[in-house]
Amino acid sequence: MSAPTISLEGLTSATGFDELLATARSGGCASSTCGVAGKPEDMDPAVWDKIKDHPCFSEEAHHFFARMHVAVAPACNVQCNYCNRKYDCANESRPGVVSEKLTPDQALRKVIAVANEVPQLSVLGIAGPGDACYDWKKTRATFESVAREIPDIKLCVSTNGLALPDHVAELADMNVDHVTITINMVDPEVGAKIYPWIFYDHRRYGGIEAARILHERQMLGLEMLTARGILTKINSVMIPGVNDEHLIDVNKLVKERGAFLHNVMPLISDPAHGTHYGLTGQRGPNATELKALQDRLDGGAKLMRHCRQCRADAVGLLGGDRGQEFTLDRIAGKDTYDSSKREAYRQVVAHERRDHVAARSAAIGMVKAAGSGKSLLVAVATKGGGRVNEHFGHAREFQLFEASPKGIRIVGHRKVEQYCVGGWGEKATLDGVIAALEGIDIVLCAKIGNCPKDQLAEAGIRATDAYGHDYIETAISAVYATAFAIGPLAATA
Amino acid sequence: MAFKIIASQCTQCGACEFECPSVAIKFKGEAYVIDPNKCTECKEAADTQQCVSVCPVPKTCVPA
């Protein structure tokens, strides 16, 4: 089976501006509302400028832009109970997992190969499999060579924070605009249950002492980044019974120290991964518990809801990993960087997202103004561009949106096995998809056959392709209007 | 005396290489190897053997 392609299909093969634009808006969308600012209303322009092309830091950008991680930093200075350094597997998608480790030279070759092939690429991150700030020489060498070849690529790192304060000045010098720190606790008593040991200042520390040192270094690093105007995302792993309630304190404290975004992720603890938590039977939270906690944190540091817990060597849009297309044996030896595809794509996106933002804000306004007091949970099949543009049977994930008196917002995603392969659907696979869509009110997709549609209906889930190729929010507002008998929004976008 | 790395256990993260105060650890062929002539077991350089302390897998850096 070929690797998943979640790119804006036509956009990757076409190269001219008009050609790209025609593909981007094919189907369903008529009017244009140019002149509306591309940024959300409530955001500082300087901040928006930093995040507008970063798929992880901006939910809006994640429809348009792709990131890649290069696995140049395998060494780590913290042992976490949810991580096992010994095993990884090509078919798994979880943080810390990679198929091959790269030297900084190999990483440069890979970044050039991806930049030439994936026009959506905007961000290069170093996120493991170890710690980017601890394995600093390799991180720095990689960033320096990539920045020389592709000056406009955004650089970001992910770190546990222990070695972070030592490198904040260099990160700032290298124009690293985005740093993610994994912070699972602000109380060393809680930390001692998550971290068996750390290696710091030439010593191994354990217990409360280890957690206290880690906590102090994390807070110092965060404050130093904030002082330099570097945007920070805080990743927290939600571990039921260990730190789930405690994450409310974490959210408060990191917000006070200037964290830009807080991303609460569910613990992954499959015993097959051989982690301490996996082996001791510590369970992860279910989707409902995760969402309940995220909802309680609303109003603190801004929450990230579109995280896919990607691999440390992921490539592409967040929803679809293309890493397998760019393994070392598949990338040419001496490629030179060709900027034409990325430049053409950027022009199209600049044009397209003005429309999208206008359509989105009109749709959200309509749902808010409806005053129905009710909410709808909508699953959307999309392959990017902010549109309902994926066939039901081709989807490998559904993005979840909630339409409520608060507006329309992304609340998560559900991974599924692709139901239709080569034109045929398997009944057993469809049952799995239906199970994954439990609790959803309506499914929006570009196309769906009568058979799966009827099966979904039997399970109490409506599905429609009536809004195929519309913007996601426009389609949702129309569904919302129909469901609660409100006058629908005039056609936008 | 010196330490050695059990290659079958090693995840090849390389942390031992850059923590070794004697520069005794190198990646050779397919595995990290400790040069017994250079290894001092970190006597005088540190309280504990640095490779053992930083290694994420138990019983991987062991007395030779």
TrEMBL record, chain B:
The keyword Acyltransferase is assigned to this record: no
Domain of life: Bacteria
GO molecular function, one term: 4 iron, 4 sulfur cluster binding
Cofactor: [4Fe-4S] cluster
InterPro entries assigned to the protein according to its UniProt record, in alphabetical order: 4Fe4S_Fe-S-bd, 4Fe4S_Fe_S_CS
Keywords per UniProt: 4Fe-4S, Electron transport, Iron, Iron-sulfur, Metal-binding, Plasmid, Transport
UniProt-listed Pfam families: Fer4_10
4Fe-4S ferredoxin-type domain boundaries: 1-30
Protein name: 4Fe-4S binding protein
Organism listed in the record: Mesorhizobium huakuii
Lineage of producing organism: Bacteria, Pseudomonadati, Pseudomonadota, Alphaproteobacteria, Hyphomicrobiales
